[in-house]
Amino acid sequence: MSRIGRLPISLPEGVKVTVEDRAIQVEGPKGKLRAELPQGIEARMEGNALKILRGSDERRVKALHGMARNLVANMVHGVSRGFSRVLEINGVGYRAEVKGAELHLALGFSHPVALS
């Protein structure tokens, strides 16, 4: 069995998981996400944890087992705590500033780079 796929996904308080056939919907304080599990993979609630199970020992299904478990675990993390990225800018002439909902970066190009 997949070492990653066999691990249960613990659900923090405020996170609700709905499983319908191969579709999983995760709702939490930071939003709602929905995903389809690959064929041969199913999800089952066991108490306050979610287990991702595989239906057969085919090579393709084994390969997708751990991936499907981590995708669902990332969905739970995203709706409960969210994600963030730390950006460190070093060097002379490099700048970053926030304008509304955009991040404008001066990185040595002939034009500023805008990220939204």
UniProtKB/TrEMBL annotation:
GO molecular function, a single term: rRNA binding
Annotated Gene Ontology cellular component terms: cytosolic large ribosomal subunit
Large ribosomal subunit protein uL6 alpha-beta domain ranges (all copies): 12-82
Keyword Ribosomal protein: yes
Transmembrane segments: none
GO biological process, one term: cytoplasmic translation
SUPFAM superfamilies with a match to the protein in the record: Ribosomal protein L6
Keywords: Ribonucleoprotein, Ribosomal protein, RNA-binding, rRNA-binding
Listed Pfam families: Ribosomal_L6 (PF00347)
Family the entry assigns: Belongs to the universal ribosomal protein uL6 family.
Record function comment: This protein binds to the 23S rRNA, and is important in its secondary structure. It is located near the subunit interface in the base of the L7/L12 stalk, and near the tRNA binding site of the peptidyltransferase center.
The protein's name: 50S ribosomal protein L6
The organism of origin for this protein: uncultured delta proteobacterium Rifle_16ft_4_minimus_31151
